Amino acid sequence: MQKRAKTTGYVISSDNRIVSVSGDWDAFALDNASPSVQAKNVVGHSLWYFVSGLETQSFLNALFFHVRKTNQPIILQYNCSSPEKLRLADMQIRPLDEQRLEISHNIRTDVPHEQACREVRSITNESLTMCSQCLALGTGQNWEPVASGPLVLNGEFSYVVCSECRRAARNQVELSSGRSLETSVI
Predict the structure, then answer these.
(1) Please, what is the angle between helix 163-177 and helix 54-70, to 10°?
(2) Is the separation of the CB atoms in 10 and 16 below 8 Å?
(3) Nearest residue to 3 via CA among 136, 156, 99, 112
(4) Burial, 147: exposed, middle or buried (Cβ in 10 Å; 0-12, 13-18, 19+)?
(5) 49: Cβ–Cβ under 8 A, 6 or more apart, which residues?
(6) What's the predicted TM-score (pTM) here?
(7) Which of 26, 86, 105, 186 is 20 to 30 A from 178, alpha carbon to alpha carbon?
(8) Which of 79-82's residues contact partners 24+ apart within 8 Å by CB, and which partners?
(9) Helix residue ranges, H only, the chain
(10) CB proximity list for 130: less than 8 A, separation 6 or greater
(11) Would you say 64 and 71 are in contact if contact means Cβ atoms under 8 Å apart?
């Protein structure tokens, strides 16, 4: 049976500092063995301190810029699974006053993994690449979905945003603005 988690979220200022958090923020942090991201440790700090990977930061910053410019919210789906749980979520970015944004994360699916974790190790000197949105593993231009079960990553890995997730984000941006993007950093 699917267990539905509550929505968590945060508000960021015009310079992307976390102003406040909402929902079961602390409970979610503790449930994920991450006491360092409890409210008392994130409010007042730059969001970018908590986002891994320059490419993921740039991707989110482009989305934030779009929402601030158009004053229109957007919703993206993403995978935030852990080794113990399959979690699929929606992230809504909503404009507020004074260029602030409210980012909410509604977890649609939160169930224990039925399969045992499989371990992934880098077998070369290169680091593993993982999409920060869908958690697919990248090797060159190819992406392997994690649909085959939960992963435990050993070794160096970096977060990027795969081409499929960029396409989905561009589609949402185009829908929210009512026009096609000629060029895009998304």
Answers:
(1) 10
(2) no
(3) 112
(4) exposed
(5) none
(6) 0.73
(7) 105
(8) 79/133, 79/134, 79/135, 79/146, 80/105, 80/107, 81/113, 81/135, 81/146, 81/150, 82/32, 82/150
(9) 25-31, 39-42, 54-70, 163-177
(10) 136, 137, 138, 153, 157, 158, 159, 160
(11) no
* Range list of β-strands (E), the chain: 8-12, 18-23, 74-79, 85-95, 101-112, 118-121, 128-131, 137-139, 142-144, 151-154, 157-160
**CA trace torsion 22, 23, 27, 32 (10° rounding):** -80
Q: Using an 8 Å Cβ cutoff, are 3 and 110 in contact?
A: yes
Question: How wide is the angle at C-alpha 66 spanned by C-alphas 65 and 69, nearest 5°?
Answer: 85
- Tokens (6 digits) for 15: 């310079």
d(CA 184, CA 68): 16
- For the chain, how many residues are written? 186
Which tens digit of pLDDT belongs to each residue from 15-68?
999 999 999 899 888 888 889 999 999 999 999 999 988 888 999 999 999 999
112-170: pLDDT as tens digits: 766 544 444 444 445 677 887 787 777 667 777 665 455 555 566 677 888 888 888 88
